[in-house]
Amino acid sequence: MPELFPWAPELEAKSHIILEEFEAKLAESDQFASDSVWQNQVMGTGWSAIRLQRLGVWNTANCRQFPQSYELLRLLNIPLAVRGVCFAKQSPGSGVQPHSDGRNFILTSHLGLKVPQACWIQVGEERQGWKEGKLTTLDTSFSHSTGNPSDSDRHVLIIDFWHPELSEAERSSLEFVYDLRNKFESGQIPFRKPKSMEEEGGLGKWWESLTGGKK
To answer: Could you read off the pLDDT of 149-184 as tens digits, one per residue?
Structure first.
């Protein structure tokens, strides 16, 4: 459906640029890193990433390592969202357990880079493999999982983007909410305790009044 994903054909046509740059950098050093403890509980210890963009912010240090990939992605004007863009590695003999991201207003595309034949991704009841140089697009609000039963690493480029059927008002509202979240997480918006918590006794005294001091 080119009308919904106008950037996809050109990305596939120029995927060799990303793959060649990725392979050259990977030959120098493995920069993949695990994410948060919470995410590792879902993704498993075999999953790791190199993030190029997250929550609308490009990781300048990582983008310098992949300048051609960064430039291509930027010029394609992909409506990037939330996780943005990352290279993802799945180690041999590992997989991601079934889970839902709980967001149907965002879609995810995986660009196959280095994919052993036995690797698979399952969304709902449908299971298939990735194709190198091709995009696999999914709605991660459905339960999905992956597996790498091969003896080699699997590499894909993950791209999160706003669902093309969102209205302009819906997308603007979501971008505003996630921008606030990003600024809060990065410390640009300070946390201030609610006034009730700042007052003497605060929530603790309120709870004692309800429970009679019982814990």
So the answer is: 999 999 999 999 999 999 999 999 998 888 887 777
| Residue 97 CB-half CA count within 13 A | 7
Strand order in the sheet with 144-148: 94-99, 144-148, 120-123, 126-128
Amino acid making up residue 155: H
Residue of 109, 132, 108, 130 whose CA lies nearest to 121: 130
The residue written with tokens 């309800």 in the block is 210
CA 146, CA 110: separation in Å to the nearest integer? 12
Give the whole-angstrom CA distance, residue 102 versus residue 34.
22
Helix, strand, coil share (%) of the chain residues, nearest 5 = 35, 30, 35
CB 179, CB 172: distance < 8 Å: no
